[in-house]
Amino acid sequence: MAITVAELVAEPQLGLTILAGSAGMDNRITWAHTSDLPRLWEWVTGGELMMTNGLSIPADADGQVALAEALMDSGASALAVGEKMHAPELLPEFLEACDHLPLPLINIPYPLPFIAIARSVAEASLLEESRRLRQTARVYDLLRTAGASEDHWQSLVQRLATELDSELFVVDRRCLHPWHPEGEPLPVFLADEWAPLSGQVSLAGKNFQWHRVRGRHVLTMDIPTHANALLVVLPNSEPHPDAVVLLHAATVLGLQLSRIVLSLEGRHRLAGEFLLQAFDGRLGTADMESRLAAFQVPAQGFVVASISADGSTADDGDRLANVHIELWRHGISAASLRRNSRLHVVVPADTAEEVLVHCAGAGARIGISTPSSVAGLQRALQESLWALGSARANKLALARYAQGPSWLGLTSFEEGTALVRRLLGPVFDYEQSQEGDLIVTLRTYLDSQRSWQKTAATLFTHRQTIIYRIRKIGELTGLDMGETSTVAQLWFAHQIHEAMHG
Question: Name one Pfam family in it (predicted).
Answer without folding.
Answer: HTH_30
